Amino acid sequence: MDRNVTVLEMVVTVVLAVLVCIVAGLLLATGFYRDFWIFWFCFVVATAHFSLVKSVHGDPASPIPGQNRITAASRAFYFVLVGVVGFCINVALEQIDSFPPLCAYGFNLNNPSVFSFVRDGLFILILFFPLLFAWGLLPQADTFIIYLAEQIDMHIFGGTAATGLVCAFYALGRSILATAVLWCLGFAAFYNLGEKRNSNGDTVRYTCADLDTDPNDPRGQCEITDRVALSFFCGALVAVSYCLSRSTSNHEYIWDMLTRLLNKKMREKQQSSPDNVSDPLGEIYFQTLWRRLLTDLLVAMFTFVAVTALNVTSVFCRSEIPAYIIYSLTCVTGVVNHYIIPHVRKEMPWLCCAEPIVKASEWDCYEVQEHPRVTVIERFLQLSLYVEKNILYPLSFLFALNLSALHYQTRFGEFGAALVLTVAGMKLFRSSFTELSRQYLVFIFTLFFFNFDYRHLSEGLPLDYLIIGILFSKFYDLLLKMYFIFIYIAPWQISWSSPGHIIAQPLLVPHAPNIFFQTLIASIVGCPINPVVASTFFTLSYARPVKYWEKDYNTRRSDSSNTRLDSQLEGSLRNPNPDQLDSLFYEHLTWVLQKSLCGDLLLGRWGRVTSGDFFILTSDRLNALVHIIEIGNGFVTFQLRGLEFRGTYCHQREVEAITESITDDVGCCCCEPGHLPFFLSCNKAMSSRWLAWEVVSSCYTLHGYSIAENQAHLVFNTFDYKRGYITYYCKSIIFLLVRSPRLASLLANQGIRDALSRLHNTSYVDQDALFDETRNCDYSHSLGGVSRERFIVYYLTFIRECVTQQGLHMDLDQADSFLVTLCFAFTLLGRRMFFQHAQSGSSRRGDNFMNGLYRMFLGDARPNHPGDEWVFQDVDSIQDIIIPAARIALKVHQDNFAFSEEYETAHGVYEAIQDVMNNHVVTHENDRTWRNAVVTNKPSLLALRYQRTEESYIYPYKLIRLTSKFIKFRVIKVNRECVRALWTSQRQELIFLRNSDSERGSIQNHKPTLRNMINSSMDLPIGYPIYVSPLHTSYLDRHETYNKTLFGRATDPLWLAQGARVVRKLCDTCAKHYQGSLAGKPTQGTANPTDGGEEGGREGRMGAEDRSVSVDSLTGLQYGRGGAEGGARGGAEPYQDPFPDSDSDSDEQLWRPMWVSKQVVITDEGEIFENINPDWLTWPDPKLAAKAEKSHWRSWRPQKGMEGEVVHEWRPFHKETAKRSHIDKVLVLVRMADDYYVLTREQGIKEV
Question: Where is this region: Disordered (predicted)?
Answer without folding.
Answer: 1077-1148
